[in-house]
Automatic annotation (TrEMBL):
It comes from the Eukaryota. Signal peptide: none annotated. This is (S)-2-hydroxy-acid oxidase. It comes from Bugula neritina. GO terms for biological process: fatty acid alpha-oxidation. FMN binds at residues 80-82, 109, 222, 244, 277-281, 300-301.
């Protein structure tokens, strides 16, 4: 039955509807992971329960906050995601425009099909970050830095994890459609080609310091899944940490980001902002991540689902669902704003989780 898009009320509604819009191989690419089940990250949220307070004046809920000092209407940023041209030829223009209209952040993929310059001249853009890699040829990275600064980007989302080419078997990369920003340096399409734009696998923590030394813009390190890496990244100068397993796409088995978040917050939360992504499918999930210490969440696939169904309007509607549900959760939990100390008392755990998985460092705050 043909359904009207005005009937789509939840993120799950958008997922089901988008499935009908994608080519089957692309649907597999979006949903897929490196072996884990695509929804493992989302399922991990089920281990966290919210313990509401009964009485508080919730007549004035405030969802606004900042990401690296920039005001946002609520704490969400769109994840960097490549291959958006496979959904719509306007590609990154769509989520960037929706993010600007809804006053949240947007991160442009290192595998984008739009150049940074085209994005800022062809769209409405607000808070925006560039997903960057450290290439063997450091001048490629330096070129991206200079152009991002000139185009008015607000910082970088640095990918350090090794990319797993097997994670996108059905997708053909090409300079025109999947790495528009560095196509002047390489036309390689085969991963075996030495000029194929894979990140340098010999990077060390000192490369963060190098990146910081060539730019005044902040660097968010994406893909952290341990306190150890978070401490190293923060010591090397990272301005923020994005706890992420890249949507389960690069390596398996890995823990769900929501389970690692408290450990990372405990390790570096006093030094830099900590965000998380992976499986955030509702405002209640978003609230849970904030209660566990995240300053903001990043959201991936649901944005592509909104884009597939209704373009800019679909992404705006997905963002509205998150905000509405977050506001509802705040009202029900009697929480007015994001005060970290007060916040911790909202979280409780399922009995199984409580017994087996909560570290004492987290537990002592409850
Ligand atoms: C289709 C697709 C493409 C992606 N491309 C990138 C990318 O270019 N760079 C990157 O750092 N992460 C990439 N990711 C991972 C996301 O940035 C993010 O970590 C993940 O999607 C978050 O999980 P969620 O989809 O459950 O919200 C991609 C994810 C998807 C679904």
């Amino acid at each position: 039955m043909l359904i009207s898009y005005s009937d789509l009320e939840t993120i799950e509604d958008y997922r089901k509807e988008a499935k009908k819009c994608f080519e089957p191989s692309f649907e597999k690419y979006v949903a897929g992971g490196a072996g884990s089940q695509p929804d493992d990250n989302a399922k991990a949220f089920n281990n966290y329960l919210l313990r509401p307070y009964l009485v508080n004046d919730v007549s004035k809920i405030n969802t606004s906050t900042t990401i690296l000092g920039h005001a946002v209407d609520f704490p969400l940023c769109i994840c960097p995601m490549g291959m958006q041209y496979k959904i719509d030829k306007r590609a990154e223009h769509i989520p960037a425009t929706a993010a600007k209209r809804k006053r949240v952040g947007f991160a442009m993929s290192g595998w984008a099909s739009t150049t940074m310059e085209d994005l800022v001249t062809g769209s409405e853009t607000g808070l925006k970050f560039l997903n960057i890699y450290i290439y063997k040829k450091r001048d490629w990275t330096e070129n991206l830095v200079r152009r991002a600064e000139a185009a008015g980007f607000h910082g970088f989302v640095l990918g350090l994890a090794k990319l797993n080419p097997a994670a996108s078997p059905a997708i053909v990369h090409s300079p025109a459609t999947s790495y528009a920003n560095i196509k002047q340096f390489t036309q390689a399409v085969e991963p075996s080609d030495p000029d194929y734009p894979m990140p340098d696998v010999s990077v060390t923590w000192s490369d963060i310091a190098w990146l910081k030394s060539i730019t005044r813009l902040p660097v968010i390190v994406k893909g952290v899944l341990s306190a150890r890496d978070a401490i190293q990244a923060a010591s090397a100068g990272a301005d923020a940490i994005l706890v992420s397993n890249h949507g389960g796409r690069q390596f398996c088995p890995v823990p769900a980001p929501i389970d690692v978040l408290p450990e990372v917050v405990a390790a570096v939360g006093h030094q830099c902002e900590v965000y998380m992504d992976g499986g955030v499918r509702s405002g209640a999930n978003l609230f849970t991540a904030l209660a566990l210490g995240a300053k903001a969440v990043f959201v991936g696939r649901p944005i592509l689902w909104g884009m597939a169904c209704e373009g800019v309007q679909g992404v705006e509607k997905v963002l509205e669902i998150y905000k509405k549900d977050l506001t509802h959760t705040m009202i029900m939990a009697a929480n007015l704003s994001f005060n970290a100390v007060y916040f911790k008392s909202f979280i409780t755990f399922t009995p199984k989780f409580h017994l087996y998985r909560v570290s004492p460092a987290v537990y002592k705050h409850l």
